[in-house]
Write a structure and sequence with these properties.
binds 1,3-dihydroxyacetonephosphate, alpha/beta, 8-stranded parallel sheet, TIM Barrel, 9 helices, 8 strands, globular
């Protein structure tokens, strides 16, 4: 399974060093694919088997894009994994589908592993299941869903950072639909915690989780990885 930590705007570089060291230690005997996405200013040359990726980058090698980083900055740390389309970038930072597609195409061209996020806001969820599927369908506009290095993360906007999680049936329904669109591994994200991750990972067509708040603490993230290991053993 794929167990990913999105550290968002948290953990300084020194805190991230400590964090990665702890996660490295706890994953020594783990068979999970573990991915950690630190804050941009916390990128560094980490000596670890864990995959380190970025939460965002501009689709350019370098240039005049104030506040952004480009391929050159990722190459400095041999980073080959990127998160694209996260709801916080879509909804808080106003990233359009057009820009998201540009990022996708650019980093696909560079052979990056792309974790592509989709997910509906609450008002859509409250309308109907069909509306949810339609909304998600539109978030794939311009995206090559058969890209070989693609991972898809389903993260309902209303479940992110709220402690609210869709029913297991709703997760399964969306993930089943996603399998019709792509053969990529499918992650669920949104209020995944140590105490609900087992049930979520048992849902059909859930191949892993993308964790925010509960991953900020290395011990808690390690417990989530351990749950995945135990599930695979049984
Ligand atoms: P939370 O786990 O804090 O809900 O965040 C999920 C998320 O946005 C991961 O990308």
């Amino acid at each position: 399974m794929i167990i990913a930590a999105n550290l968002k705007t948290n953990l300084t570089r020194s805190a991230t060093h400590k964090y990665i060291k702890q996660v490295q230690t706890c994953t020594q005997n783990s068979s999970q694919e573990v991915i950690v996405l630190p804050a941009t200013s916390s990128l560094d040359s980490y000596k670890t088997d864990i995959t380190i990726g970025v939460q965002n980058a501009y689709p350019v090698e370098h240039g005049a894009f104030t506040g952004e980083i480009g391929l050159e900055h990722l190459n400095e740390f041999a980073i080959k994994t990127i998160l694209i389309g996260h709801s916080e970038r879509r909804h808080i930072l106003g990233e359009t589908q057009e820009l998201i597609v540009k990022k996708f195409d650019y980093f696909k061209e560079q052979g990056f592993k792309i974790i592509y996020c989709v997910g509906e806001p609450l008002e859509i969820r409250e309308r109907s299941h069909e509306e949810v599927l339609m909304y998600i369908h539109n978030q794939f506009e311009g995206i090559d869903t058969e890209y070989e290095n693609l991972i898809i993360a389903y993260e309902p906007v209303w479940a992110i950072g709220t402690g609210k999680v869709p029913t297991l049936e709703d997760i399964q329904n969306v993930h089943n639909e996603l399998t019709k669109k792509s053969s990529a591994p499918l992650l669920y994200g949104g209020s995944v915690k140590v105490n609900n991750v087992k049930d979520i990972l048992k849902v059909g067509n859930v191949n892993g989780v993308l964790v925010g708040s509960a991953a900020l603490n290395a011990e808690s993230f390690c417990s989530i990885i351990q749950v995945a290991d135990e599930l695979e053993k049984n």
